[in-house]
């Protein structure tokens, strides 16, 4: 597995470094929200990645390519979710900072809220499933336990995602003190909302 692991790590490493919806959500949450929520988004995204990888290794996600109905249902669920999330960001008013209880899991918008957002964003994107269907099988050596090898490869993707996300959060938190003005925070929220709407529209058009 050493050779396939190294090759797969390179492929998904380049994918991880490519800016996308996950990057936008992590940066926005790290700048505007509590640290726990930002890590919730990260772990939610990686939860979705691991689920997609496991489903692909088990052959379940082949349904997305075999069944047009399954693919379209998931795609439009993702479109609706992204459009709803983008509109919510555009309408949201900047919240005041709460340094004393920033990392409290009980606060609205804490860890669970971030985890749900990250997980749903990843799982409702059928293109992630199609990516794993196309990319994962060629890296599983002949004779290797298919499910175990697939989970191992997906875990490499998760590990790289966690490392890159940690760097993104650290970078965003250094900017946090410079972005406390409500007007700047509102602009960042609106910009992320527009980006999310753009991703939703792109998914709707099937590009």
Automatic annotation (TrEMBL):
Keyword field: Cell membrane, Membrane, Transmembrane, Transmembrane helix
Record GO terms (molecular function): amino acid transmembrane transporter activity
InterPro entries: LeuE-type
TM spans (from-to): 44-66, 147-175
GO cellular component: plasma membrane
Organism domain of life: Bacteria
Membrane topology summary: Multi-pass membrane protein
Compartments (UniProt record): Cell membrane
Pfam families for this protein: LysE
Protein name: Threonine/homoserine/homoserine lactone efflux protein
Natural source organism: Kitasatospora cineracea
């Amino acid at each position: 597995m050493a050779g396939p692991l190294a090759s797969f790590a390179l492929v998904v490493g380049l994918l991880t470094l490519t800016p996308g919806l996950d990057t936008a959500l992590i940066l926005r949450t790290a700048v505007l929200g509590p640290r726990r929520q930002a890590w919730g988004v990260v772990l939610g995204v990686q939860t979705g990645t691991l689920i997609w990888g496991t489903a692909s290794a088990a052959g379940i996600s082949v349904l997305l390519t075999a069944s047009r109905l399954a693919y379209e249902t998931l795609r439009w669920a993702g479109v609706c979710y992204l459009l709803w999330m983008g509109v919510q960001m555009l309408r949201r008013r900047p919240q005041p900072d709460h340094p004393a209880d920033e990392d409290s899991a009980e606060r609205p918008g804490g860890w669970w809220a971030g985890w749900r957002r990250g997980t749903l964003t990843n799982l409702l994107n059928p293109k992630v499933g199609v990516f794993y269907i196309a990319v994962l099988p060629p890296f599983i050596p002949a004779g290797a336990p298919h499910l175990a090898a697939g989970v191992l490869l997906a875990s490499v993707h998760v590990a790289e995602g966690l490392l890159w996300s940690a760097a993104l959060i650290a970078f965003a938190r250094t900017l946090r003190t410079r972005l406390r003005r409500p007007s700047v925070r509102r602009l960042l929220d609106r910009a992320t909302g527009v980006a999310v709407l753009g991703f939703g529209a792109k998914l709707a058009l099937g590009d």
